Structure formats: C-alpha cells, structure tokens
User: Fold this.
Amino acid sequence: MKKAFIFTLDALFAVSILAVFFVVYSFEMNVPKETYWLSEMGNTFMTSLDKDGVFYQIFPQSDANAQVMLSSYLDKLPRNVNADLNISIYHGSGDVFTRTRSFHVTRGTLSGTQETHIKRVFSDILNADFGLAELVISYG
Amino acid sequence: MAKGFIIAVTTVLILIVMLLYVQNFAAKQDSDLSKIAQILAAEKVTHAWSDIRDDINRAFALLITKEDNSVSFLDQLPSEGIESFLHHYGLFIKNYYESPDLDVKFLSPEGADMDLGTLPPVITIMPQNIQYYYPTWAKRRLFITCPIENASAIVQVFLTVNVSNAYINCKPVNPSASTDCEKFTPNRQCTGSTDYRLYFNLTIADYRGGFYQLKQNCFDIGGSGSGSVDNIDVKNVTGAYFIKVEVGNLPQVLDIDLHNVVAMTNTTLILNTSDFYINYLAQIETTAVNYDTDRVDRA
Assistant:
C-alpha cells in the first residue's frame, strides 16, 4: 500500500511534467499561424500599394514628397504591427543598373523574430527606371 | 495491496495515454506547420507572378478578351521603348527580384526558357493559326493574317479606331473637306460563288467627336496581290496624316497602318467556332525553390 502510494506520486509527478511540457509546446506551436497572418497582412498591404499605383507615383515625385507619402501609407497598418519599408529606384542602361534614389520609412521597432519579408517590383517603362519595394513586418 | 496496484496501473495508463496524445499532437502540429509553409510558398509564388504580370501587361498596353466564339484585342498604338524595357525588366528580375527561395522564368508559348528582350510581337489564335502581330514593338502597324486553308474560320471583323491626336478630315464629318470618307468599297464584292469572304465593320472616331463608319461590307479576300485599301484622311494642327486600312488578300486579312496617328484600337474577331485558344506572347513561371509549388501562366 505504501509502495504503491510512493509509486503513484512518482508517476503523477512525471505526468505533471509532461502536462506542463504539453501546454508550453502547444503555445509554441501557434507561432506559424502568427507568421501566416503576418504574411497575409503584408502581402495585402504591398499588393494594394502596387496595384493602386502608389509605388509608380514615386517616379515623378520629389524625394521629400515621396517620403511623406510612403510614411502616411505605412501608418495605415494595424497598430500592433511594426514595419520597415525600403524602396530603391534603379536606372537601366545597357545591361547595368545604377541605383538613383532610395527611401527608407519605418514604424516602430522590428521584433527581430517572426519577421515577414515581402518584395514588389514596379517600373517606369519609358525611362527604363525600375523600383524594388521591400517590406519587413513583425508584431509589436 | 490490490488498491495500490490499481492506482499504479491507472497512473501508468494515464501516462501512456498522455504520451500518445502528445505524440499525436506533435505530429498534427508538424503537419500544420508544413501546410502553412506550403500555403505561404504558394502565396509568394502567386503574388510574384501577379506582380510581374502587371508590369509586363502595362508595357504591352494590350488587353485580350476571349468570349465564346469571339476574341477582342484592345490595343494602344503606337508604343515606345517596349523592346528595351523588356530586356531590362528581365535582367532586373534576375538581378534584384529573385531570391534564394524564389525563381522566376520567362517562357515562350511553347514553354521554352527565353530572354524577354527577344519576345516576338506575335499573338496566335490556335489551332486556326490566326496571327495578330506588329512588324516591330513600335506598334505603328498592325496585321491580322490567317492561312488560306483556315480562311473560313474568321466570319466577321469589327475594328474601332479611337484617334487621340488628330481629327477626321473628310466628308461627311466636314462637308467642306475635299476628300470623301465614304469611298471605301471592296475591290471585289462578295457574290454567291465567293470562296473567301470577310464581313468587315470599321469605325474611326476622333477626339473631337467626329466619326467615320463603314457599314458592314462583304469583302472577297481570296484574290492575289493587294487587297481593298482605304486611306482615311486625318489631320491635327501640325499636319495631315492618314490611316490606311487594307482588307485582304489572304493570308493577310487586315493591315492597319496608323502612320503618325496615336490611337486605341479595338479589334474583335468573330470566329466560326468557340473551340480555340490563344497563344500569348509569353508565360511567366514563378517557383518557390524549397517547395513543390510553382505557377506558370500567360503574361
């Protein structure tokens, strides 16, 4: 009776550890779903900027105006999201591309983990100018 | 003793059930993780494809719509810098847009790897082998051809030219003008024995609201030599131009030469069947390198 009692406590202790492990593990396993929603949000954001011609509007604008415009769009992201948007404009001549302009706008500080990276390309056909927009977002 | 034994066995059983549950949970989570990664890869590929397609379509300024037995080409003519743009764009995608986990390829309609800069300006309707093409990417002239053995495939053609930099300079739009717009008649009208006939409808509209309309005419397009030609007189403040429209002769169905006129054309071909497909200029293939996920579709 006594031995069985000791054995039961021992076993129950093991089961408890396992249960704690299970709980922690199940919380950890939610990470990919967060990444998925983050990716969805980032792609929707970048696609809307691209298809609405926001990126294209950078070409004729001054650097200062473009910077303000991009910041205002970045502020439309949900409050719990931090973001870092880099845009580079290249001019193609021959087979060589030269970076002619660049913009960097941020909101908050990226977490360093669970970051999602999204790219979009846009172009000015007549002037052989090409733009690359790169967004990194994470939950704040 | 018996009670203790039952408690011990129950505990061990609970432990085993717990272990099995955790194992099952872990397997399910691994499976979910893998599925999410696959979904993310598929989304990345689709977004990349759409991103590139939009840029290329903007460069072509051509929208093709197929509906039942008709196909329409909404086209901006002429164009500037497409060839150079395509060459640079292909290079830019390779050098700056591709990443270790994303591969982009430009394929010919047959599926062969190609340099975008060498893209021929030809769209083909298959299996009838009807071609809609420009001699060069400058898009100053537009041809539609059809092999003589498939000539009956094209039943009717509707062509609308919306001129944006000139106005029509002939009667009846301007009664005092010397040229008569209504002179366009087929060299050979269709008769009961005509083998190769085309019903052709032409409308030319200018930016001032004037228009010239050729009522439907049946053209015999089976002869040799040049077809039926009309030169529609247009002008703007800097000078006089004309739009040449030639109908026939097979394999040529239509030749539209805009000279210096800037226009949006809408060409609709009515075929004798809905059983056809369009070989677009190129296909874009985007692939997520680490996953078995890609998208290949027309540009």
Remarks:
- Chain A has a mean pLDDT of 85.
- Chain A touches chain B at residues 1-5, 7-8, 11-12, 14-15, 18-19, 21-22, 25-26, 29, 32-33, 35-36, 39-40, 43, 46-47, 50-51, 90, 92, 95, 97, 118-123, 125-126, 128, 130, 132 (CB under 8 Å).
- The two ends of chain A are 55 Å apart (CA to CA).
- Residues 81 and 139 of chain A are 4 Å apart (CA to CA).
